[in-house]
Amino acid sequence: MVNELYEAVIGLEVHAELATKTKIYCSCTTDFGGLPNTHCCPVCLGMPGTLPVLNRRVVEYAIKAGIATNCTIINFTKQDRKNYFYPDVPKNYQISQYDLPICRNGYIEIEAGGGKKKIRIQRIHIEEDAGKLVHSEDGKYSYIDYNRAGVPLIEIVSEPDISSAEEAKAYLEKLKSILQFIGVSDCKMEEGSLRADVNISVKPKGEAKLGNKTEIKNLNSFRAVYRAINAEIERQIGIIESKGIVIKETRRWDDSKGKSYPMRSKEEVQDYRYFPEPDIPPFTISEELVEEVRSSMPELPDKRKERYISEYGLPAYDAEILTSSRELSDFFEKAARGSNNIKAVSNWIMGDFMRIIKERNIKIDEVPFKPEHISRLVSLVDSGIINGTTAKMVFEVMFDSGKDPEDIVKEKGLEILNDRSELLDVVKRVIAANPASVADYRKGKKKVLGFLVGQAMKETKGQADPRILNELFLQELGENS
Amino acid sequence: MKFDERQPGKVRIDDNKIAGLSIDELTISNLQKLISKREISVPELTKDMLDRIEKLDSMLGCYINVIGEQAMERAKEVQEKLDRGEINSPLAGIPMALKDNICTDGIPTTCGSKMLADFVPPYDAHVVKRLYDNGAILLGKVNMDEFAMGSSTETSYYKKTINPWDPERVPGGSSGGSAAAVAAGEAVYSLGSDTGGSIRNPASFCGCVGLKPTYGLVSRYGLIAYASSFDQIGPITRNVTDCALVLNAIAGHDPMDLTSSKKEHPDYTKALVNDVKGLKIGIPREFMDENGNGMEKSVKDAVLNAVRVFLELGAECIEVSIPALEYVVPMYYIIALAEASSNLARYDGIRYGYRTPDYKNLEELCKRSRSEGFGKEVKRRILLGTYVLSSGYYDEYYKKALKSRMVLIQQFKAAFEKCDIIIGPVTPTTAYRIGEKIDDPLKMYMEDVFTAPANIAGLPAMSIPCGVDMKSLPIGLQLIGRPFDESTILRAAYTFETHTVEGWKNG
After folding, report:
1. B59 interfacial to chain A (CB closer than 8 Å)
2. A209 near A240, Cβ under 8 Å?
3. Lowest CB count within 10 Å: A272, A279, B69, B501, which one?
4. Nearest-CA residue of chain A relative to B351?
5. What is the complex's ipTM, to 2 decimals?
């Protein structure tokens, strides 16, 4: 939506909750939900006298995220206090990282404008999440739930390399797939485990000097990010065109209204008074630890995608979709294992499989049948035991019962009908029952043939071999004689 | 209780002895012998101590909260454990007191502040668990400067504690209640906390032995933070032997405190050796310079006399120089208050502690609770700390202070290549009159000039009695050691005490 006369400069700050079992500084669970204030202890409530003990896993996960995004892992690091008063922060400071983040100078590649584009990552640091404020309907009371307080986060800060809403969306999708692949975060936006803030400025095309930037917060879905960026680009262009000045400010996105509003003016710029966290001594990250983490990492999505193209001979489009999440990709690999028609397996997964799990609102790990049942279904079709129509029906039954497609075909007697004399009777009956269509056909409306074959399929409950039916119709309608 | 006018400075607390011991004899080791010989039972001893508190404390004001019933219950339990041979610790059955910034499960912990008047921690501090495991009997929680901010115990929201040596004088601070309680025999020993001198200063004013351990030797878990980089818990006792006994019980690694050291610590009673022959004792030139630090002549004389005693006992005394000592007070206040401003941010009236009765919205709730819940000195320190961390000032103050801290650490290290321990005064003066310095914060801050260096450099430091001044008020001698070398300062202190105790107490 960027006007040809302008270009946008966009950077993203993404917060991802880490999928560790326990919180960053205590042993409370990180499970989502739970009654308010039941996943808490004196430490994550910041009670007087308590001290934080850094969860080693959090550091390992941050290193993983850094390796997966081509970052340099720092060898000497520390945590810092970010001071600000807000009731969802139990200590009125957040333990974060200021000048020595664990990861620096990385990048990820996204598909943009038909090619690849590198989006550089400035830093990844670890910090603690805050609790949640809940306001009563009458507006009289506010309640605080500290269950999320102390859940570990990584903040991933990109360089301002993004130039459109599409690229921002592609970047977020890529980041999400990477973090899920390496098991570092569930990235569930609906549970708030992935959140993004956008920094954005607009300038005339070719102009070197950057425009004033705004920061947009409260973006709770990829769609909101996309819409907010387009709206902000438009807003800033509008200001520039009417000779106004874009104010440096933080804005809050209202998704229902499709608009953003100023959150605080620049006079109120927060001074976080960062200083080194005295309760957590600085620590080193050894080469050995980085290597240990590296060797424990699964294959990353980009690598898998390449392998799907080179090894399985899949089109880039298929490979991209199949590697969009770890679950899907793992499911596909199991389904493809031992199959000699991998493209057909891919078609099933990208088509009916994705459609049905969406319709039925189930997750991949809730699919009742085994991945290898898909390759069996493909062989049933390829070996001519069932036709495509039957296969679609069998697939639905697999979702209902979780049964092996071979068993379903046997139990229901769904094998293909290819007895010519039996099918000839059907063809004759159809011709007799549809004199008008037959007349049309004879007048040259060849398309009618498809309708007649369809009627015959109906009569055979979809089990007839369509090639034989075709042949028989042509023969009976006198085409061959 | 009477203060003997014919013999000023000598505490005369009626005639009633505890377990036949005079107040000077009320030590852990003496009581332990009586308990094991069954000359007194733990409940009897506890009862006697509670009676003494009952009799004296309305005047002395050591305790914020006495937990008589709980103490008696624990005393019975500990006696039963002793009878069954289930407990074997020199601290078993000995009644003691805790500074009221050390969290105790189910027992109010006020930090000397209105802000925490109703705060009851749901957990014990690590040191409290250790002491309970050793069979200690907690008598109650003792007075302190609010949030440990002060050197006279006058900033407490609750009460003034008076110095048992002179009812018109302060006991020192911030662990004033801890030191006064031990001096007056209202506790056999106590724990204090020391951020810039808060154990050593009152120990010196009250004629007790006080030790601030090496940073990291004793867990800070459950100590309500003032300045996290400097805070350490330590014992205040009647003599050096008791100090070693208590330190043995509370030192050691705690996985709940990342700043606590994993080093094995020695048995500190092994250091109680009457021998300083060949020990190299350094006296920093900067400590003895009369200009600038306001040191009274009597204090200087007492320290020089201590040097003579050590020389006579065969130690070697040398002058050392630690030039960065000149900047200790600004260094200390910048770093400590920066941390304090952040540590005390959590007291906002929302989750626990004082909440203003009158507020319309969140901002008012927080502002008013803090305005009404904190005292003047605490507010002053929060403001100063906030200021030095503010953008534009951070580099000029905080960063510079951290750099000079590194210089001080290096200079101490260099000095310790020439000597084994460093000695000097604890405070520039002896106990001053109540109200004398409370309205002059700068004067009050100068009280820390000799004690804060050990906190800034993380070194172990002790205060032991080394004489009395013309007003018969006790003077403290400070002994500073290498990191984790509490043993050497304990040895020097023990030797000094052995040779001087009768002398100084009889004036």
Report:
1. no
2. no
3. B69
4. A90
5. 0.94
